[in-house]
């Protein structure tokens, strides 16, 4: 997908690179959709759609400031993994994708690495206040929109699949 940004002062369009912070919601959504989906196929609740994002940001905000770098990645991965344990046990809302838990843990770790390193440290400069503020809400809103777009594509490709939860 080509990303384009209009530079008003220069009056020109710039091609955005894969590393652009504008790609964070897309990359985050791609990463967590590899291991997690909301229960409902049609019109899932927002909190179900964004559960991995919410857990990752909440974990960073609540973690002791001494947890940093790779340790923080592992703490976030552990919390998301606990969510997936509950999803597998049907005690939390959501659907798992991987049958092999080893593959699931690898996908969770990639998501946690990206969230902590690229979003929290690089984009928010490790500033917890920014992670708790308006910027994370913009990322959440965009991730939800992108998730729903992908869900719509899945529903068009597999229209006969039954919803996991009745309306």
Which helices and strands, and how do they pair?
Layout: E1 3-7, E2 12-16, H1 24-33, E3 36-37, H2 46-49, H3 51-62, H4 69-88, E4 95-96, H5 101-123, H6 128-132, H7 134-157
Antiparallel strand pairs: 1-2, 3-4
What's the total helix number? 7
Give me the strand/helix succession: EEHEHHHEHHH
Strand order of the largest sheet: 1-2
Quick one: biggest sheet?
Answer: 2 strands, antiparallel
Q: Could you give the count of β-strands?
A: 4
Average pLDDT over all residues: 85
Give unreliable regions as ranges: 1-17
Structural class from helices and strands?
A: mainly alpha
Q: Whole-number radius of gyration?
A: 17 Å
- Give the tally of structural domains: 1
Classify the helix fraction into a percent range: 55-70%
β-strand percent reads: 5-15%
Mind explaining what this structure looks like?
This protein is mainly alpha-helical and 167 residues long. The protein has one domain. Helices cover 59% and strands 8% of the residues. It contains 7 helices and 4 strands. The strands form 2 sheets. Strands 1-2 form a two-stranded antiparallel ribbon. Strand 1 and strand 2 form a beta hairpin. Helix 4 crosses helix 5. The longest helix is centred in the C-terminal third of the chain and has 24 residues. It starts with a strand and ends in a 10-residue tail after the last helix. 28% of the residues are buried. The N terminus is likely disordered.
